[in-house]
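A.,

Following up on our hallway conversation. Structure tokens first:
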């Protein structure tokens, strides 16, 4: 059963704001002070709520997304901020030459919240993000490791038991598709689930790409209970145990979210 916030745009926007104010913004500020001189980019901005604490600190904030309907909502919800030149929301691909020409080495901070796990060619993509950073800038990543109980994003499925069944996204594609069809999911939902299966990322692969790209991990935090679950399910966030964090591969199955800043 799809969660309420998936269809309630205003609720999703407010969850983005609350999660950013309490968790994302403080995590980024721990390694990079946000001021009125800061330039911030969010890739996959959705309704733009994550950027609100940065806008409130005076940072010029740009949000991009490939979904025009979500950019329309961002421009609606943050109309005053856009009108006063504090924010800009674009339905644009960051690979576009027009975007690159405007924003090469422009941003102090780039944010990807629940985005990298949807991106193909993640090594190429992260290398491209680096070209948009000013010297000394940093990138924030928050994502669910692919092997975690709901790493396949099956919680968005419409059928209740299919949306609450953990780990089955790890089965081979024919079995995965059969479960989705058995649950009554339509072709569009199955296509979406297979795309996530194709792009899901592990902690080890992420850290390997960061190293290969010439970036360094500045700060990281692994969570047993994702901070966003506080707003979605009423569950209090819990940091992952150090002994689990130290166990490669196994930690992916028991960690629902990781935060990283790299630069």
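Then the amino acids I'd put at each of the 263 positions:
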């Amino acid at each position: 059963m799809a969660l309420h916030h998936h269809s309630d745009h205003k609720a999703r926007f407010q969850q983005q704001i609350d999660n950013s104010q309490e968790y994302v913004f403080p995590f980024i500020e721990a390694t990079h002070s946000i001021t009125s001189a800061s330039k911030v980019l969010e890739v996959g901005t959705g309704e733009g709520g994550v950027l609100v604490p940065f806008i409130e600190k005076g940072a010029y904030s740009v949000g991009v997304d490939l979904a025009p309907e979500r950019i329309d909502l961002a421009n609606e919800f943050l109309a005053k901020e856009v009108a006063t030149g504090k924010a800009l929301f674009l339905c644009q691909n960051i690979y576009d030459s027009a975007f690159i020409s405007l924003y090469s080495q422009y941003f102090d901070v780039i944010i990807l919240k629940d985005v990298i796990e949807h991106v193909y060619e993640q090594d190429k993509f992260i290398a491209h993000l680096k070209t948009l950073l000013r010297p000394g800038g940093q990138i924030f990543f928050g994502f669910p490791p692919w092997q975690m109980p709901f790493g396949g994003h099956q919680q968005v499925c419409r059928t209740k038991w299919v949306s609450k069944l953990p780990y089955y996204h790890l089965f081979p594609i024919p079995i995965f598709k059969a479960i989705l069809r058995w649950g009554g999911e339509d072709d569009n939902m199955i296509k979406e689930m297979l795309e996530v299966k194709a792009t899901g990322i592990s902690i080890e692969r992420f850290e390997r790409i960061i190293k290969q790209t010439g970036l360094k991990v500045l700060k990281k935090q692994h969570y047993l209970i994702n901070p966003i679950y506080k707003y979605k399910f009423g569950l209090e966030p819990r940091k992952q145990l150090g002994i689990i964090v130290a166990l490669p591969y196994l930690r992916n199955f028991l960690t629902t979210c990781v935060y990283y800043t790299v630069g």
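The beta strands are 39-43, 60-64, 87-90, 107-113, 133-143, 217-225, 238-239, 257-262. Curious whether your intuition agrees with the design.

B.
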